[in-house]
Design goal:
By secondary structure, this protein is an alpha+beta fold. It has one domain: TusA-like domain (Translation Initiation Factor IF3). 34% of the residues lie in helices and 30% in strands. The protein is globular, with a radius of gyration of 12 Å.
Length: 82
């Protein structure tokens, strides 16, 4: 398992979700994408994006300064049956 880090601090909606979607395309099934954001709207936008892609997401850190998401890339078969 590999974890790729994506620093999106300072970016405003919709850029965090768009850049997360693009980065997910290069992540292999079973690997993780760790996304660091400062935009408060990302707590809505990124989970909504992940519901669309069929992957898994959890917020591992949330405070006044940043939000950290850990996204697990699911394989095609898993996401179809989720």
């Amino acid at each position: 398992m590999t974890t790729t880090k994506l620093d999106l601090t300072g970016l405003k909606c919709p850029l965090p979700a768009l850049k997360t979607r693009k980065a997910l395309k290069s992540v292999k099934a079973g690997d993780f994408l760790e996304v660091h954001c400062t935009d408060p709207l990302s707590v809505i936008d990124i989970p909504n994006l992940i519901r669309e892609t069929g992957d898994k997401v959890e917020i591992t850190e949330r405070n006044d300064n940043r939000i950290v998401f850990l996204i697990e890339k699911m394989d095609e078969k898993s996401s179809l049956h989720a």
